[in-house]
Amino acid sequence: MDAIPLTVAISLALVLTFLVLFWRERSRSPKGGAERDSLQPLADEIRRPSKPSR
Fold first, then answer.
1. Residues of the chain predicted below pLDDT 50
2. pTM passes above 0.70
3. Which position among 4, 11, 21, 54 has the lowest Cβ density within 10 Å, counted as fewest Cβ atoms?
């Protein structure tokens, strides 16, 4: 019967960790984030015009 309290304690610790990390990420950059930055095109990318095929 000691497994149930241990499981509940570990589950609560995981939930608390998730909430802390989630709120820290949200407060760090409200208009951006890793997901948004990954969708932006690369700033250093240079597009070269393609040569027309004959």
1. none
2. no
3. 54
Q: Residue ranges per domain, the chain? A: 1-29
Element (H, E) at 5: helix 3-28
- For 21-47, the three-class secondary structure string (H helix, E strand, C coil) is HHHHHHHHCCCCCHHHHHHCCCCCCCC
Give Dmax over CA atoms of the chain in angstroms.
Answer: 78
**Each residue of 20-50: b (16+ CB within 10 Å) or e?**
eeeeeeeeeeeeeeeeeeeeeeeeeeeeeee
What is the distance between the terminal CA atoms of the chain, rounded to a whole angstrom?
78
